[in-house]
Batch of 3 targets.
Target 1
Amino acid sequence: MEFITWKDNGEVFEIVLNRPEAYNSLNEHMLEELKEALILAGESEAKIMLVKGRGKGFSAGGDINMMLSSTDENLSEQVIDTISDIAMMIFSMQKITVAAVHGAAAGLGLSLALSCDHVLAEKEAKLAMNFIGIGLIPDGGGHFFLERRVGETAAKDLIWSGKKLTADEALKLRLVDAVFHGELDRHAGAHLEKLLQSPLSAMIETKKIYQTLNAGRLQKTLKLEKTAQLRMRLTKDHQEGIRAFLEKRKPRFNQQV
């Protein structure tokens, strides 16, 4: 694999987003590789899966060049299907899943992190559900995972404002579960060691109950996100948002379709 690396030590299956030159922004090839890695993780005997990013951040979200292909309807639909598959695979994983976030976790990158059971954030991390800045809505189950953690009212505020949160602000909202200061691997490793001393089989049984109760709702959310996102990608607001991003200026949204 080119953009994803993985390692299985029998106890922890580790997946690393490995496109540091692009702040681990997710393009179609990286998403397909991530899906492949998740299949391997699901087949592994390990009871814990860790997801982290290489380089200066966890993930800056969807790749801007992939966004520029949004007029290709077939490509857009295929990419969203892959994103939805990834969200469902992590949600359904019969393991305790952990995201270790440093640097940026934005847009689709934040949806990916929130799909995990535990989200750890380095103190200098910045988190944002910032699809709104380019005239889009969250995908990857972003609506579902945000609401589950902070409630509908706070979720709408985070989605509509696109506000950038510090790790401490995210912790207060319960968007993340712990904040650490210092070296990512050391702190993530300490968290994993604590989990490995826990009755993981019992924890996973509890997770299965919640999965059974909520899987249908996540599937419905993903379908709704797909329909709405494909529609949003054809709007003038989205086109203006992309142009403004490339030109490094504030977008001038006009609410026209």
Target 2
Amino acid sequence: MELNFNLIYQTSFENDSFLELQQYCIDLISKNPDKIFKSLNFSSIPEKLLISLIQDANLQMSEIQVWDHVLKWGFAQSPELPSDPTNFSKEDFNVLKNNLK
């Protein structure tokens, strides 16, 4: 389960019959958020999963750390954005804004 945690977590949201598995994963992430946030495929998790992660009141991570990961996720949704935000155009900011909406 540890090796394929992201897959199991994503799968738990695909069917209402997996609610117990979903809750197990959420509890595990609350105690050890790095399981998702620092995983290699974090940037590919669906928006719904990201929202459920950041809305968890028991998440043991500072708001700054959460925001940093959310921004990384947002950048990954539009790889065409410049890597340095100081070079962003107004349109680039709008793209990122739409990703994070």
Target 3
Amino acid sequence: MIVLATLIEAFATILHTLINIYIWVVIIAALITFVRPDPYNPIVQILFRLTNPVYAFIRKLVPTLIGGIDLAPLIVILALQFIDLFAVKLLFALANVL
């Protein structure tokens, strides 16, 4: 039982870290769009490849363009925060019960 609890805690910690890293990727990608980056820059390409599929999925579900401002990054961040607060804490609670 203690091994399973430790495994669940480790998975929850890694999930929390990955969610936080992706939140920062979304924030950086959103901020970069304000300065018209060079589309051939490898860092810009990586950021857009990491975020555009998620934005496209969100845009299919919800209209994100309001007043000329794209709210897709904000929706993604809020969804990730919800997953972090709900799923990760649920995993930690499950590990504590075991």
